[in-house]
Amino acid sequence: MTTTARGVALRALARIDEGAYANLALPSLLERSRLPTNDRNFATELTYGTTRMRRACDFLIDPYVLRPLDPDVRAALRMGAYQLAFLQTPPHAAVSATVEEVPRRARGLVNAILRRIADALPPRWPDSATRLSYPDWIVQRLASDLGEGDAIEALETMNESPSVTTRDDGYVQDLASQWVADAVDVAPGDRVADVCAAPGGKATRLASTAGLVASGDVLRSRVGLVVENADRLGSATLAAFVADGRRPPLRSGAFDRVLLDAPCSGLGVLRRRADARWRVQASDVEDLVALQLELLEAAIGLVRPGGMLVYSVCTLTAAETVEIDRMLERLHPELHALPLPGEQWRPAGRGGRLLPQTAGTDGMYVLRLQAP
């Protein structure tokens, strides 16, 4: 059977439904497919787009389903519905090409349902969460934390395919992450600690200026990514270590700059992580806040007098951003907040928030604190 973009996407979607991560499932399939570049790009769009819009696609499919569907049939219907409703692929092309990729036993069913969907477009969505294809709790939480207008615009932006930005040294990194590294404001010769550094994008950017960047992460496999990227980019001033950021094996008060790019709910990077919206749970936020506070207490101890701590997260929840800032202000009144460079940062507490729609980047929050 000839390998096609839709066939590769359908196999990737089946793996994702079984629990695989989208960014791991698809590349291996593309590598083996030997598809030309245009077809690889189309397979990527189908895989990530269908994964993002899964809830909306199911809303289109389910009125015509009378019995439980096999997973491979459900995946094919979602992929077909995505083409019809979101890529505006002509029905004759979307339906026939999708039907060709499913087992013969299901072709009649898939053909009939997709044609019914095509005839019923455009849909009447019941609510914003279904239209935008997010879990209810994400829409409700961001609407509460950001205001409904900003939240809806952010969620719409994160349904678009992410742009690709390549640094001067060849490393592919979103502009938002580059701006976070720039906010660390490293001077030549500075000693920098990056305590949650993997995969090393920010650490290698810092290492282009710093005298030393001590870059750690809790998992040896993730530190391996830091080392791999540092070696590839020739980051001679980067020294990697494996450790829990709550107990870093570093000398207290020894660093001019400390970056804590903390583990978070990731609600600012959902366009880049297509399946993340279906993995993260509302209950995770509370656990992450507790971890962030522990990491911050350890990071504060590493900053020399007059040095700076930079706290960053790639999420938009108030609990992990402005509420963290309020707790730090109460617990550490000796730390002085510093302004952020760049008009892209919208004031949020004493720090700055970057919404995805502001500059077409990932969503971020940054807080800069100077030690006395």
From TrEMBL:
GO terms for molecular function: RNA binding; RNA methyltransferase activity. CDD domains: AdoMet_MTases. Keywords: Methyltransferase, RNA-binding, S-adenosyl-L-methionine, Transferase. It is an enzyme of class 2 (transferase). It comes from the Bacteria. One of its GO terms (biological process) is RNA methylation. Its EC number is 2.1.1.176. The active site is at 314 (nucleophile). InterPro entries: MeTrfase_RsmB-F_NOP2_cat, MeTrfase_RsmB-F_NOP2_dom, NusB-like_sf, NusB_RsmB_TIM44, RCMT, RsmB/NOL1/NOP2-like_CS, SAM-dependent_MTases_sf. Gene3D superfamilies: NusB-like, Vaccinia Virus protein VP39. Belongs to the class I-like SAM-binding methyltransferase superfamily. RsmB/NOP family. This is 16S rRNA (Cytosine(967)-C(5))-methyltransferase. It comes from uncultured Acidimicrobiales bacterium.
